[in-house]
């Protein structure tokens, strides 16, 4: 299993801390039930952290003409027409994916396009599944412009446990659905804002897979 590069330093620190805890315990108490319990708990904790930072190899093999691919693993927690005040300043279709601590936390680009906006906003750390988290929580926003001119806004949102959002692309760079857009540490959420009239292909509470599940089909661009 490949580990995401975002977790290498954290895993090293966790390993050292657990070694510093278990080494002295084994030295002073020897092999006994107490040290075995602590050692077992330490191994389980370390493997849990390793699992969080897993980075599976994926490639989207579907048709990308008008497809919008899920940017994250998780559960669909919002499908609604909303007013988007940050960039579009008009109504958009919002599709939101909530990631639990057990999900892969790498984020992919939902469409191919050029990054025309990148912004980071400081905020709170409320539960990411709450509707207000989209505008009140710590978050990072990018806007992708497809070749046909259609723009898609993607917002990474920190949750109650997530304390760091990483967004890789800079303005002017090209994004592709097979590339990682960023990473959010611990429970979090990703919102995608699409043109009104987009055909939404997922339902509430549906489990989706990043870079694999087609969540919507964009309306055909008028020539």
Short characterization:
The chain is of the alpha+beta class and 223 residues long. It has 3 helices and 14 strands.
Q: Which helices and strands, and how do they pair?
A:
Blueprint: H1 8-29, H2 33-52, E1 67-69, E2 74-84, E3 90-99, E4 106-108, E5 113-121, H3 133-136, E6 139-145, E7 151-158, E8 165-167, E9 174-175, E10 180-184, E11 188-194, E12 199-200, E13 207-208, E14 214-217
Antiparallel strand pairs: 1-14, 2-3, 2-13, 3-11, 4-10, 5-6, 5-9, 6-7, 7-11, 8-10, 12-14
- Distance from N terminus to C terminus (CA atoms, Å) equals 46 Å
The named CATH superfamily of the largest domain? Glucose Permease (Domain IIA)
CATH secondary-structure class of the largest domain: Mainly Beta
Biggest beta sheet summary: 8 strands, antiparallel
Order of helices and strands: HHEEEEEHEEEEEEEEE
- How are strands sequenced across the largest beta sheet? 9-5-6-7-11-3-2-13
Overall strand count? 14
Average of the residue pLDDT scores: 86
Describe this structure in words.
The protein has 223 residues and is of the alpha+beta class. It has helices at residues 8-29, 33-52, 133-136; strands spanning 67-69, 74-84, 90-99, 106-108, 113-121, 139-145, 151-158, 165-167, 174-175, 180-184, 188-194, 199-200, 207-208, 214-217. It folds into two domains: 5-52; 67-217, Glucose Permease (Domain IIA) (Distorted Sandwich). The longest helix has 22 residues, at 8-29. The N and C termini lie far apart (46 Å).
